[in-house]
Amino acid sequence: MTKQAATARKMHALDNPIWHALTTLQTQFAEGDELARRFPPEVTLLAAMSQPSGEAYDSLKRILHGAGGAIFLAEPPIVPDGWKTIDACPLVQMVCERPTIAVEDDLSSVETLGAKDSPEMIALAELTKPGPFGKRTHEMGDYIGIRESGRLVAMSGERLHLQGYREVSAVCTQPDFQGRGYAGRLMSILMRRIAQRGEMPILHVRQSNASAIRLYEKLGFRTRRLLHFLIVQAA
Fold first, then answer.
1. Please, what are the averages of pLDDT over each run of 10 residues along the chain (235 residues)?
2. Beta strand pairing status for 222-234 and 151-162?
3. What's the pTM?
4. 3-90 carries CATH number 3.40.630.30
5. What count of other Cβ atoms lies within 10 Å of the Cβ of residue 122?
6. Which residues lie closer than 8 Å to 20 by C-beta, 6 or more apart?
7. CB count, 10 Å around CB of 225?
8. CATH number given to 95-225
């Protein structure tokens, strides 16, 4: 075992969640080696390193093949020479130990989303910018949505999956349909499913998105720590 891999094992899994997903319960998607791994870009841009060392960045460069990769770092980023940062922001990691879901949800207008819905899901994600979303992101877990007059107006789903934890992600609502409680309703359904499987819901949100953080707190999430989100590309 390399020194970097040994150090990574000492960290809590949630301090490096993409890495732990790609090395445990989502290895079927993993591309890379013991220093750096990524999801196929048509699934998501998410990638990770066991530790952000120079050797790991070199490995990441090889597996990205010139494309961009979205990474979470536990410490403020020091990106080596030869890379450019496309996007960067503080990222709040939240966990929900006891979902505050008082009543059963009405599922009559909620539908499961899949491959046939991918173009609409991508369009909604591009409009609302919840984070990296690809044509195969729906393969990462359960995705559900709400339609109005046949139009997909809200969705949410599961992204990262690691031992004991499931990430709620892609929380999107068309601007014209915000304020109707769709996001909270879809999240509540997913949170209940996750809890029933004996796992803990987690999520990641930009620190600047105060309104979303307030919603998540009402649903029972609390802030665990601050991470650093970057989209990087070899220059």
1. 50 95 98 98 97 97 96 95 96 89 63 97 95 95 96 97 97 95 94 94 97 94 98 94
2. unpaired
3. 0.91
4. yes
5. 15
6. 13, 14, 162, 163
7. 13
8. 3.40.630.30
